[in-house]
Amino acid sequence: MFELLLVAAVLVVLVGIFSAMDGSRDVFHPLILIGPMMILLYGWIPWRIYSIGGLDQFFDQEQLVFVQTLNVLGILAFVAGCLASGIRLRPEPGSRRPVLSETACRRLLIGAALVGSLGLLCWAITIVNVGGFVNAYSNSYAGGWDDSGYVRDGTLLLLVGTLLSITALASNGPRLPSFIMLGFFGIPWASQALLMARRGPTFALVVIVLMGWYLSREKRPPVLSVGLGGVFLGWFVLFLVTNRSSIYLGSSFDVKTDVGAIVDKPDSGNEFIYGSGTILSAQRRDHYFWMRRYLAQILVRPIPSAIWPTKYEDFGVPELRQNAGTGEGFGDALGWVGAVGSAPGIIADLWIEAWWLCIPLMALLGWVYAFAWKRAVTRGGPWASQYIVLSALSIYLVMQTMEAVIFRALLLSIPCWLIWRWALQSVPLRHRRPQIKNAYPMETIEHA
């Protein structure tokens, strides 16, 4: 039965991908981007581990069937939500894509310079704190550091600067300033992503650069190029994880090109095994958060710990301090403990938050992604930037948790909205003195 459910998960995603491609003819449709990651997490990975008997040491057949049934329902809901939003694009009455003027492009670059420079400053602070660039990246998975979460998370603003710079460049804005800012903001982020072997930041940068260019020019790369590029990107992010201990400055770079071991390794840190444990532990303990973790990301996380050191405890979610609250009760409920730093994937994360309501929430997520895609295609401008942000964060959504998405989405999307709003404002005309139609002075008229 478990094998059939694995096949069902893959088939549901494939039907969604082909339906989206047939209806939209757009390689940037969310199902084409997110679908392969769902196949990896809920189809390929569990099948590889199950085929070598690696799941038997963690779960029995009944548990596997329950978990995979939930996964299939969640995937089906996401696909249905995406398709329900509409896949055949029709021009909306009164809507049109804004044509960026020279002034709008210049304002986008100014906004990119301001926000990107703030991100660059945060990145530089973290590097200086650990003794410089070489010290920061001379150990595996090291990087910079600062005690302030604002500084650490502030480096995300480098992505905003990169996105707006390439948008201005693709919209025929000033070329030299655009290229300069792409270098200043993109290279530090790339160094942080590659020298720390971080799959999420690497994926996000690639998506922002490619989609930022093509969406701004209202063009699409060939389907074959997207397919081959997607396969390479998927292999590359797995390559980074596989060789994380060998990628750093001064390393011998003795790397492995076979990434299969990271996929079928049966340990408690594997995404499918850890996610399944998260679901079963919450079910056995009958413990769910009912949106408190997500609210904490919005209401509590922005408050510095130096001001409110017990903020999560006082809010009622002390579990957030370890694995975002997803690894509670494993020992008592399952007899084994999830690895520290692991993530369960989106369906398991929604399950411990909202029980069976995770199914309609998955449908809502699918609808949101498809809605943002439609607006990006039909209206462009700020909607294109918002969809690119959501697409860049999709790897966190599928493979990690909503907590990994919420604060990143807010930190990236809000500056984009504000800068776009300013860029698209009409340029006020200078006030000119009213011309006097009568050329004669008033005194002359009175004495005439």
UniProtKB/TrEMBL annotation:
The keyword Nucleotide-binding does not apply. Keywords: Membrane, Transmembrane, Transmembrane helix. The keyword Transmembrane helix applies. The chain crosses the membrane at residues 6-21, 28-45, 65-87, 108-130, 150-169, 176-194, 200-216, 223-242, 354-373, 380-399, 405-424. This is Oligosaccharide repeat unit polymerase. It comes from Edaphobacter modestus.
